[in-house]
Amino acid sequence: MSKTIGVLTSGGDAPGMNACIRAIVLSAARFGYQVIGFEHGYNGLLNNEKIRLSNLHVQHIIQLGGTILKSARCEAFLKPDGVKNAVANLNSNEIDALIVIGGDGSLRGLQKLSEIWSGQVIGIPGTIDNDLNGSDNTIGYQTAIDTALDSIDKIRDTADAFERIFLVEVMGRHAGFIALASAVASGAEQALFPETIEDPHAELESIVQHVECLRKIHGKTSIIMVITEHLWPGGVSDLAETLTHQIGIECRPCILGHIQRGGAPVAYDRILATKLGAYAVECIADQETAIMVGEHNNQPSRIKLVDAFGIQKSLDPYLVKIQQDLFDVVHSMQ
Ligand SMILES: Nc1ncnc2c1ncn2[C@@H]1O[C@H](COP(=O)(O)OP(=O)(O)OP(=O)(O)O)[C@@H](O)[C@H]1O
Ligand SMILES: O=P(O)(O)OC[C@H]1O[C@](O)(CO)[C@@H](O)[C@@H]1O
User: Fold this and answer.
1) Contacts with 228 (C-beta within 8 Å, 6 or more apart), sequence order
2) Which residues does the UniProt record annotate as the domain Phosphofructokinase (predicted)?
């Protein structure tokens, strides 16, 4: 049976989204399905901004960061009327199935849509934050780690030359995946992420102790602390000022920011995105709905949408343990 699939990218763009769109379009063609791309996230559904996607549109995009469909956040879709208008538009375009590539918010929105729309809905985890349950990695996460790592390595060069202390803020929203991975991979002296810190101010004393311990052991040396955004009220600039005041050594803040979202996807993200795009179309052929496709232990997997965003994904406990026990000097000396 012929079907028309709608696809959109929503929330923060993530390297690999284009590779995923390509796989959806090419797989759909194999099944004889048509694909309509809606632009600017859920805004495209509400404003009927659409483009019929052919194989030509997705030629040579596998290596590109960003998303050819553009992405956005959409206030109007947060309201019940927004979701209703989206349903009306999906029906008037005779869409049978909708694929949304995005983060937890985007998939929450998709769940809302599935509750009042009779078409099939499939979510694909596309966010650098890696904060969706049901997939070992989200599309874009591995590229973001490499991008952060490249910057942190450069910060180390100048930090070493001046024997300075740097506080590096990475993205992740409220999840510490990027902070933990980039700290371990860069040999950072400390990683601070929300999963292990309830009260950041209570942590200040141990951060100060940490710096003092390091200086005692190594003398004047460079120190890098990687910190998840939103963790410290006032951000890393405020933390750097507070620390400078407390320990009497100038600390420098560095916010990596949106460079973490850009750039060509690494091979891992291209392959993951390709697998998940193809698998999403297979799931549509299987009459699946209200699921997120993912990858677990290298195998494609399916999980209910509500469990993808409703169950918190844990950091790798072993990585947390070794970062804290072996590499965060303050913890290992307590
Ligand atoms: N509870 C919700 N109900 C309906 N729509 C939602 C809901 N949460 C989010 N959305 C829609 O999804 C869009 C994207 O969500 P959000 O800004 O949280 O990004 P995300 O998908 O989590 O991606 P990322 O965190 O990687 O940027 C929102 O702008 C909104 O249109
Ligand atoms: O580009 P914006 O809208 O400021 O969003 C930034 C957020 O998006 C993400 O890059 C992806 O979710 C987060 O890590 C970050 O908090």
Assistant:
1) 169, 170, 171, 172, 174, 175, 176, 178, 179, 192, 193, 194
2) 5-284
Active-site residue, 129 included: yes
Residue nearest to ligand 1 atom 5, measured at CA: 109
Looking only at the bridges linking them, the beta strands covering 50-53 and 34-38 are antiparallel
Question: Are 261 and 128 in contact, with CB atoms under 8 Å apart?
Answer: yes
> How much is the ipTM here?
0.99
130, HSE (Cβ side, Cα atoms, 13 Å) = 24
Given 104, 129, 131, 146, the catalytic residue: 129
> How far away, in angstroms, is 257 Cα from ligand 2 center?
9
Q: What is the DSSP letter of 58?
A: G
Question: In order of start, what are the domains of the chain with their CATH numbers?
Answer: 4-140+265-310 (3.40.50.450), 142-261 (3.40.50.460)
* Residues 268, 130 contacting (CB under 8 angstroms): no
pLDDT per residue over 155-200, tens digit each?
Answer: 999 999 999 999 999 999 999 999 999 999 999 999 999 999 988 8
CA–CA gap between residue 312 and residue 1 (Å, rounded) = 37
